[in-house]
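Notes taken during the Thursday session

The instructor put the following on the board and asked us to keep it in front of us for the whole hour. The protein is Aminoglycoside adenyltransferase ANT(3')-Ia. We were told not to look anything up and to reason only from what is written here. First, the residues (24 in total):
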Amino acid sequence: MREAVIAEVSTQLSEVVGVIERHL
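Then, after some discussion, the predicted structure tokens were revealed:
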């Protein structure tokens, strides 16, 4: 269960990082 949560959070983080890099 915990691994699934970590995987989901890391995917969301990478998406956020991609959006931030686009705006920089």
